[in-house]
């Protein structure tokens, strides 16, 4: 039997699976309902299902690699469960026990001033924060010795109160991790049941508050991730890898030691898969929109690479680990429509999820969702997954009619209103990732994928002025496909603040970071290594930095000058000004970064045969766009390259549906993508 690679993306509603036959290049896709109570069950069901579809057997013997995208590790934090961090404690330097309480004095968007904003609970309440004596300066030199006796008292205090996950963040440990490592030794001796995260391991970078919270998030999710990985490993009986939020993967055995790196792993895979699809079709820069059952994730790809950030977060917790720059909005197929206290119609962010799901699923859902609105309007067929999952159209209609009656609207106006609100929620997320980053949204085609991603494509073209929307083959499985396109990648950072850096010092730090990356890649089984360097710089006196790529090779004065020139150019591009020729504004170096990459062979996207004849619809049904009308239905599998479909129409496939509104035209390109454009452009 030929070797195969499998990607599994666990979403809020469905678990998506893609199998790649490495010898023939054949790609097999499938979906199965997610199992929120135990995600491993949906995972295994999906793996067995795709293996049976490929070879008629559930045997895992032929699987050469299995990659998983999941947010299991962080769901409890995203959902703000009361027990989400009840097992968590924090150790910091004596005199700095209020670092979490002080936090940052910034007010979230949407509040005019701090008077109306209530400070949320901290990730660790003050009564579970303990301090230990000892002090380092900003260069890592010891000012006061580490107090081992006090450290032992702290460890015993946590043990007696059943605190089993502990984050350690000492002042200036990015410059010298010695005190933190001694604290870990004390915890291992006095409280061996505890799971410990050190800030010098998680994020060796300055800014104490962000480093503390990032470390605590890592500690909080370690026990959950370990249990989940152990459960999956037991069921699979073989190694597997997990997608990271930085656009790389890591073996499950390594992920349990750094679970915070898996934040947004599913959305990151989707952005990477969409980038490969768009680039192959001749669009190196694009917006990616991943519409799922619970939310929509939006990213921007520039010159083939999704934008990265270290200013992301998990819910309300800032996390400075490198991650693909993704904006998430609660606008998915399961988003619930509701009436505000003022009597206006709203949609999301609360979702019906997979259980009970929308009303039309027939699993006990009682609240109208975006999917129910699509079903009522005839834009979604009365079944999903190629007929595997029947939908209750009558129940969806009854739900929409009841909501419409409460609003004093016709059912059609109510349903289209729900979809319009969802479209504007998605468009706001797109503007946030483009316009607020200095990009013109009209310059980017959009890749729409995920089960609900293509449903509002035509409206988003109208709202945003997009040049086109590209709907890939099997759009519901693009995130799972993206898992098969990802290199192994580890990121390392070191803070080194200097206005006149020494080439020797910079070279030593980069060499040390590259050595750490090499060790990790060796453990992953890679003999071939690729290193990507970058540096964070700023003008002296600024509070935040600009990241620029750094070249390979030896570090000398010319190398430093080249980085400074890149910084000037990038600062001018981002902010419209720079101080290249003004000696009063000195460039300050802040952080040095290295990514260690273990490259893989990416799947090739095959060209499709040309469509010789005009495509023929397979059916008609009543669909509401501006009015009810008998509308032609096309099966995507029947379309070849060059096929053209004019709206009004609906194009259906196994995992998704594309409603083509009047005034829009869809053309299938050479790689099987459906390209949607407005007839007015």
From TrEMBL:
Residues 5-190 form the Hydantoinase/oxoprolinase N-terminal domain. It holds the Pfam family Hydantoinase_A. Residues 504-671 form the Acetophenone carboxylase-like C-terminal domain. Transmembrane segments: none annotated. SUPFAM superfamilies: Actin-like ATPase domain. InterPro entries: ACX-like_C, ATPase_NBD, Hydant_A_N, Hydantoinase_A, Oxoprolinase-like. It comes from the Bacteria. Residues 211-491 form the Hydantoinase A/oxoprolinase domain. PANTHER family: 5-OXOPROLINASE RELATED, HYPOTHETICAL 5-OXOPROLINASE (EUROFUNG)-RELATED. This is Hydantoinase/oxoprolinase family protein. It comes from Microbispora bryophytorum subsp. camponoti.
């Amino acid at each position: 039997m030929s070797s195969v690679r499998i990607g599994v993306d666990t979403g809020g509603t469905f678990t998506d699976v893609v199998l790649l036959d490495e010898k023939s290049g054949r790609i097999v896709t499938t979906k199965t309902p997610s199992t929120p109570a135990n995600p491993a069950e949906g995972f295994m069901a999906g793996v067995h299902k795709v293996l049976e579809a490929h070879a008629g057997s559930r045997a895992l013997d032929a699987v050469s690699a299995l990659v998983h995208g999941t947010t299991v590790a962080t769901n409890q934090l995203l959902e703000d469960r009361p027990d989400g961090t009840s097992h968590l404690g924090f150790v910091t330097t004596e005199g700095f026990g209020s670092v979490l309480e002080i936090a940052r004095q910034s007010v979230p968007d949407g509040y005019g001033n701090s008077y109306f904003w209530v400070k949320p609970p901290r990730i660790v309440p003050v009564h579970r924060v303990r301090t230990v004596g000892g002090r380092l300066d900003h260069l890592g030199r010891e000012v006061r010795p580490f107090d081992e006796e006090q450290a032992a008292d702290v460890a015993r205090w946590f043990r007696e109160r059943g605190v089993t996950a502990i984050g350690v963040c000492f002042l200036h440990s990015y410059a010298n991790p010695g005190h933190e490592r001694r604290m870990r030794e004390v915890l291992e001796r006095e409280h061996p049941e505890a799971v410990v995260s050190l800030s010098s391991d998680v994020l060796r970078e300055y800014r104490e508050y962000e480093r503390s919270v990032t470390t605590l998030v890592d500690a909080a999710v370690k026990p959950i991730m370990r249990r989940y990985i152990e459960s999956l490993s037991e069921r699979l009986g073989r190694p597997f890898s997990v997608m990271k939020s930085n656009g790389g993967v890591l073996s499950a055995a390594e992920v349990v030691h750094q679970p915070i790196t898996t934040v947004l792993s599913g959305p990151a895979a989707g952005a990477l898969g969409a980038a490969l699809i768009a680039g192959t079709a001749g669009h190196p820069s694009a917006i990616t929109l991943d519409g799922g059952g619970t939310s929509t994730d939006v990213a921007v790809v520039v010159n083939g690479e999704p934008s990265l950030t270290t200013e992301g977060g998990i819910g309300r917790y800032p996390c400075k680990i490198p991650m693909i720059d993704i904006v998430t909005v609660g606008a998915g197929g399961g988003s619930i429509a509701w009436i505000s206290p003022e009597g206006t119609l709203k949609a999301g962010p609360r979702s019906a999820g997979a259980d009970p799901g929308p009303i039309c699923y027939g699993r006990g859902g009682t609240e109208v969702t975006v999917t129910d609105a699509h079903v009522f309007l005839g834009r979604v067929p009365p079944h999903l997954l190629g007929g595997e999952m029947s939908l209750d159209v009558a129940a969806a209609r009854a739900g929409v009619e009841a909501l419409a009656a409460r609003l004093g609207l016709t059912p059609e106006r109510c349903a289209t209103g729900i979809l319009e609100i969802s479209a504007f929620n998605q468009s706001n997320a797109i503007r946030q990732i483009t316009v607020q980053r200095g990009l013109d949204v009209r310059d980017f085609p959009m890749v729409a994928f995920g089960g609900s991603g293509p449903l509002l494509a035509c409206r988003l073209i109208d709202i945003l002025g997009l040049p086109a929307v590209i709907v890939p083959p099997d759009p519901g499985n693009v995130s799972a496909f993206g898992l098969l396109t990802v290199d192994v990648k580890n990121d390392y950072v070191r803070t080194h603040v200097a206005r006149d850096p020494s080439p020797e010092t910079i070279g030593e730090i980069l060499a040390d970071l590259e050595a750490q990356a090499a060790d990790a890649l060796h453990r992953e089984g890679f003999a071939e290594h690729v290193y990507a360097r970058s540096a964070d710089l700023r003008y002296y006196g600024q509070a935040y930095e600009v990241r620029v790529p750094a070249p390979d090779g030896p570090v000398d004065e010319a190398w430093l000058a080249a980085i400074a020139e890149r910084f000037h150019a990038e600062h001018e591009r981002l902010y419209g000004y720079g101080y290249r020729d003004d000696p009063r504004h000195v460039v300050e170096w802040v952080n040095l970064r290295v990514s260690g990459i273990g490259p893989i062979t990416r799947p090739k996207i095959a060209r499709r045969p040309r469509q010789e004849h005009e495509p023929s619809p397979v059916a008609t049904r009543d669909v509401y766009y501006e009015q009810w009308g008998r509308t032609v239905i096309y099966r995507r599998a029947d379309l070849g390259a060059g096929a053209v479909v004019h709206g009004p129409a609906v194009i259906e496939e196994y995992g998704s549906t594309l409603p083509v509104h009047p005034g829009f035209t869809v053309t299938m390109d050479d790689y099987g993508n459906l390209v949607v454009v407005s007839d007015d452009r």
